[in-house]
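Thread: Modeling a multi-component assembly for a lab meeting

Hi all, long-time lurker, first post. My supervisor asked me to bring a structural picture of a complex we are working on to next week's group meeting, and I have zero experience with this. I have the sequence lines for every component (567 residues in total). Could someone generate the structure of the whole assembly? Inputs are pasted exactly as I received them:
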Amino acid sequence: MTRLTPSTKSVALHIGVVLALLALNFLLPEYHRGVFARVLVLAVFAMGYNLAFGYTGLLSLGHAMFFAAGLYGAGLTIYHLEWSVWPAFGAGLAAGVVVALVVGFLALRTTGVAFMIVTLMFAQVFYLMTLYFTTYTRGEEGLVLPQETRVLGFPGGMLDLSDPSTRYLVALSLFAIVLAAILFLVRAPYGRSLIAIRENEERMRMLGYNVFVNKLMAVVLSGLFCAASGAAYAVLFGYVGSGFAAIQYSILPLLWVLVGGAAATLGPLIGTLFMFYVIDTASSYTTAHLMVVGLVLIGVILFFPKGIIGTVRERWLPWLP
Amino acid sequence: MAAVKPLLETHGLGRSFGGLRAVDGVDFSLPEGETHAIIGPNGAGKTTFVSLICGRVAPTDGRVVFDGKDISLMPAHKRVRAGIAYTFQITSVFANLTAFDNVALAVQRQLIDDHERGLSSRALTEHGMDALQKVGLGGYADKVAGNLSYGHQRLLEVAMGLALRPRLLILDEPTQGLSDSEIENFIALVRQIGEEATVLLIEHNMDVVMALAERITVMEQGRILAQGAPAEIRANQAVQQAYLGG
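Re: Modeling a multi-component assembly
Sure thing. I ran the full set together rather than chain by chain. Output:
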């Protein structure tokens, strides 16, 4: 019998997860398929956040602005400029990268608590801008993208993104691409550098690394993934509003990553899924659902101090990436 | 005989912390290939002095010249790439990574510099294992660094320095906390390193200093008190006073 190396095992596991999610498209009842599609898109947001927070150790409280940059980059170009989905998605990604580059360049001059505050302030500025330009964004009320604009052109035909099955499969494709990218990144030498920067920045400097540039690249990549999530959200669910730029959308990815497991590739998916269903289940029984959510979170912290995947890895499966 | 070209020079190098003059106008010259020890009582400014050389601390005045180039304004990470490696006085390995990953971080930086791109994982493994074997940690590659004994962590620290293939290796109190037998191995190791690189060593253990150093600089209160071959330093009146408080 041949023993599997940790690396083959982890690649097999990730492929298995994606295949299982693919099967769920055909097995899940309609309502839950809708929930899963949303979770998959938001898990991409959490994976982007995990790259900055989990791997590089940058605790940002402003990631809503990267998500919203993608959301508005895609939504506004479709709504006002009548772009089709592909270029609009590209505009969303570009917006995310530009915002991440500028904010990262300025905010990375600080560390720790100051970094949290600076990113929070930038995100507030972004949020207030979406309200200020209400002529174009319609603020909190937001824009609804007409169904006929939400079609994805292919050489062989068109995909209607408002169709539940198509929506699920497109969300899964994006999720699989980003998951593969993150898995590749963290196993590559660059991923090791990011983790080492989180562990001991001064030592990295004395190994000849330009720590600032490495961190800036991590923020830009993180911003890119978060923007991809936002842009996909706009075209798949057809709604673009200021609420997605507000502070709770900076805190949610942090929560999802902490619950699922920071610096674990599958942590963001598990955390996002778990939190969605806890809130969903609790709110179907009581209006005081936030109290239930709070209790569940206390339980998670008590029994899974490193997040669900993080603790599973520590106790049972050390090869998990 | 032509004078050996100095690899490192400092001119009037100084650093103040508030009112304290930690390093005070030091003129220093280190020929290529020499193993040089800096000794002196606690607080003499030894660590600050080498920190100025490797760029961890910015000077308030004076210049640092490395290989004929003024590097006074060069950031630390560029000085490392130019060939100055520093091993920390307080062991500063990445405790949660394996021993191999620790040296791999140094090697991959080095490989990226050499070929820009195309970092092959085989070269990475080879160079990394090579550095571990040089310090005798070949069998500990997969061990998590934080679980290694203190002596082994110190060796790992040196292996990381070696993996950078420096022209100047600065060792800041490398034998602190090591047992006698570990110190003996360490002396042999530094001797071996000294054949390829210039070594600047801060050390309190006089046996180590006498065994390794070709020349010695004695610092006191931020200044150079004396400089010379080991025998001269041993006989120097001022040095004896500084050390014995006479």
